[in-house]
Amino acid sequence: MRAEKLAISNQYVAWLNASPYFIVVDYRGLKVGHFNELRKRLAKIDAEMHVVKNSVFRAAAATAGVGDLSASLAGQLAMITGRKDVAQAAKILKTFKSEFEKPKIQFGYLNQQRMEAADLALLADLPPLDELRGRLLGLIQAPASRLARLIATPGQQLARTLQARVDQGEQTITFSLPALASGEGESTKTK
């Protein structure tokens, strides 16, 4: 490989290794203004879109450990990488495609697992990762909150009952303790 292509390949490898995912799209027919608009939208979620040369990208993917993409790379392709949530990038692509009918999602990889366009479309329909984490945390905390309320309820009811009696003007409140082993109950008065 020539020095120029080797430098480009090394840049592709760096992008692939720095990101937990990448998505390959065919941008054929996408106008420059629209292409730049898509880049701006992706930048908001810390993702980038780079035009790639297919033959060099094929070699870079093999070097990065992705595997052989020979059969998958055809057309005018761009690679989208990011450092955060792949679902947000897929959502932006899906929204953009609904507005401009391009780019066409080819495939992607998430943690070295290939994802087809349909898989990425499913990811696009998921809520953001932070929201999913919040939901999971809520599910985990819900039983603990219910248990705490259940444990606190008898004490709260007793306190409300005592307060109601005090409010009614009763000066002496009688408590009946459970029967002792001898079978006799004990009564205690408080003022």
Biggest beta sheet summary? 5 strands, antiparallel
Instruction: Give the overall average pLDDT.
Output: 81
Query: CATH homologous superfamily of the largest domain, by name?
Result: Ribosomal protein L10, N-terminal RNA-binding domain
Number of strands: 7
- Indicate the structural class: alpha+beta
Could you walk me through the main structural features you see in this protein, from its secondary elements to its overall organization?
With 191 residues, the chain is an alpha+beta fold. The protein has two domains: 3-131, Alpha-Beta Plaits, CATH 3.30.70; 158-191, no CATH class. The chain is 52% helix and 20% strand. The protein is built from six helices and seven strands. It has helices spanning 3-18, 32-43, 54-63, 86-100, 117-124, 129-167, and strands at 21-26, 47-51, 77-82, 104-110, 113-116, 173-177, 186-190. Strands 2-3-1-4-5 form a five-stranded antiparallel β-sheet, sandwiched between helices. Strand 6 and strand 7 form a beta hairpin. The chain is elongated and about 100 Å long.
